[in-house]
Amino acid sequence: MPEARGGRPRDAELHSAILEVTRELLAAGSYAELSMESVAARAQVGKKTLYRRWPSKAPLVAEAVLDAYGRSGSFDVPVSTDLRADLRAWLVEHAEFIADPASAALIRALIAAAAASPADNIALYQQLSVPQHAGISARLRRAVDDGHLDAATDLDAIADALIGILLLRVLTQTPASEQPRTEFDGLLDALLDGALR
Amino acid sequence: MPEARGGRPRDAELHSAILEVTRELLAAGSYAELSMESVAARAQVGKKTLYRRWPSKAPLVAEAVLDAYGRSGSFDVPVSTDLRADLRAWLVEHAEFIADPASAALIRALIAAAAASPADNIALYQQLSVPQHAGISARLRRAVDDGHLDAATDLDAIADALIGILLLRVLTQTPASEQPRTEFDGLLDALLDGALR
Amino acid sequence: MPEARGGRPRDAELHSAILEVTRELLAAGSYAELSMESVAARAQVGKKTLYRRWPSKAPLVAEAVLDAYGRSGSFDVPVSTDLRADLRAWLVEHAEFIADPASAALIRALIAAAAASPADNIALYQQLSVPQHAGISARLRRAVDDGHLDAATDLDAIADALIGILLLRVLTQTPASEQPRTEFDGLLDALLDGALR
Amino acid sequence: MPEARGGRPRDAELHSAILEVTRELLAAGSYAELSMESVAARAQVGKKTLYRRWPSKAPLVAEAVLDAYGRSGSFDVPVSTDLRADLRAWLVEHAEFIADPASAALIRALIAAAAASPADNIALYQQLSVPQHAGISARLRRAVDDGHLDAATDLDAIADALIGILLLRVLTQTPASEQPRTEFDGLLDALLDGALR
DNA sequence: TCATAACCGAGACGGTACGTCAAGTCTTCAA
DNA sequence: TTGAAGACTTGACGTACCGTCTCGGTTATGA
């Protein structure tokens, strides 16, 4: 416990309240439309309080999104004896999360934040994708260990494909017409069974 | 021949000159750093001239990027007798385009522009992904017709996987550490040959 | 007849039509609110046509006002045997002209034009006051000649006082509460008879 | 004690600093040449700060000029036993103020400002003329009380004549040719002694 | 008669300033 | 020291006019 010598301590509840307000505004508008000013006004908070905690808009949005992502269930890859079922379950879980317009808006906002500040690009975006990649990789590696998967398989490639397909879906899906197909069987067939005759 | 009776016609050369200036500024800085004002100043153009043609920054940037994308070679999927080689060639061509820092900056700008205008959000992404999807699909369908690919294969899923992987790469790649591996053999092995033992 | 070699001659009716439109807009708004663009639009005239005839807003407004002033009756000083009656008649005539809100707006516009462009200040404003001054001076001089007025009287001072009082009235009168007193007897008493006991 | 709970208070020094800068720019150029932007730049002040205090250019200029007018001596009508001398002193004081090119520029700017905002038009002029009128009227009334002036005299008419003559002088005087005669004896002779033979 | 030349409406052009909005900092009072 | 409130500088936004220019097209003269 190094510091905080004297003075009033920071209000811990404010932190989550601000993140919540940020998410609300993000669901209502776009990343660009969200302003520090509007967050401060909606949260009934001085702008100084905002800047005391986050250096700028991008990190605030990043934390708000990742906070929601972390809180909304685990997104861990299931581990059963059926690899295909496990992967499908993981994909479906993500797809349903993405299908919620509010969640999709959050992810789009995170991408926008990353694209807007190329310096934080990595830190910001990979914070979301790296854990997913790790989870899928681990599950695949276990499948190799269990002899369910060919040892020569490029596990990273498969993980990237799964994540990439979800990413593409977030960005191109229309709020109106939800993509009905959340089965992913065709994808998993191709990835696991192969397609060449 | 509907309209434009009377009045001085718009200068067509200005259009491309402005797009070029926009690209230059985008290569030098981020989307957020680019301002309509700086474009106007650099292009020696009145701001009104900008707003006469593009309602805001986002569509201007979008057109500038897509214009460059359209002009920079075709990115058509090659058609030889070797499906795997054709797909790999297409992937490598895109990967190299993406790896070029200037191009990556343009794409990041496009993403930021899409995030800025939620209305055009999907339209913008689809403008990029739909033609690619069509190209890949067509090539795959031909492979099915030629008997090289299993007729039951989910062609859309494969196309989405290929596009998704490139998308993921754009978003996660850092300016510093270029991803060295542009082979995609592992991915194609998995997708075409299958991985399940 | 110096020039006009070849080419279509200028449309003479346009001239007065534009001046009329200018006056209409001046009656509706202020000098500052009037724009060359609005004049052109309202008169269904190209801007080039405006600038071909007047170098800028101030001269256009000046001509529009002076044109109306010149057209609206004579404002000549009457010449009877009764100096006081003549001056009062002249004052009343002016006062009634001024009491019309549209006319007052025109004069205010002329003053604004003069104040806005100090270079044309003299030319612009004195064009209005000098003829009045001359008219009054002449009438006063005649009164001196006729022996009705003391030869030592400062005729210019009296003329200035009469014009100045009208000027003050234009600028300070409220559109709502017209100044009821249009008699000017008190003023003429003071100026002609003196006030010192 | 009504309001202003919390928040940083407005900087009072900025107010006068901005007015001073406005006057400097007005002395250098015309009202039309002065821009809010130039005021902000010269005063090292954000435009928001300007617009927080004045809704537009006209009121700012008005306050700047009236502030200088109020600060530059009192222009009170002297009160001695000699009415004519007192009035002459007052006239001369004003005439000299008007003759100063810097002051003339300020007054021209005030006139332009008044013309720009038709709503404040009268208010603005009256702000200048009413106090003067009151001062002169009071002095004249005192002269009546002292028996120096005929009780039947129209005091308002005399006051208006004096103010009107100064107004005329401001408007017609050119920067180049200063009117040399600042005596006003002819005017005062006519007004006080009368001219009719 | 037919070219030449100035005119005309329309509206795009490069600029400058407008008045608004947001970013990020600073200053006050209260807790 | 934290907070809410809000003024501060800076700089971009999108709009309005300025005065100039370029279109297609008209209307007079003069070859």
Describe the structure.
Four copies of one chain form a homotetramer. With 197 residues, chain A is mostly helical. The first copy, chain A, has two domains: 9-56, Arc Repressor Mutant, subunit A; 66-193, Tetracycline Repressor, domain 2 (Orthogonal Bundle). Chain A has nine helices and no strands. In chain A, α1 packs across α6. Chain A is elongated and about 65 Å long. Chain A starts with 11 loop residues before the first helix and ends with a helix. At the C-D interface, α6, α7, α8 and α9 of C face α6, α7, α8 and α9 of D. Chain A binds a DNA duplex (31 and 31 nucleotides) through α2 and α3.
- Based on Cα principal axes, name the global outline of chain A: elongated
Rg of Cα set of chain A? 20 Å
In whole angstroms, how far apart are the ends of chain A? 65 Å
What is the H/E order of chain A?
Answer: HHHHHHHHH
Structural class of chain A, by secondary structure, is mainly alpha
Secondary structure: helix percent of chain A: 55-70%
Domain HTH tetR-type (chains A, B, C, D): 12-72
GO molecular function, one term (chains A, B, C, D): DNA-binding transcription factor activity
Pfam family, one (chains A, B, C, D): TetR_C_11
Keywords (chains A, B, C, D): DNA-binding, Transcription, Transcription regulation
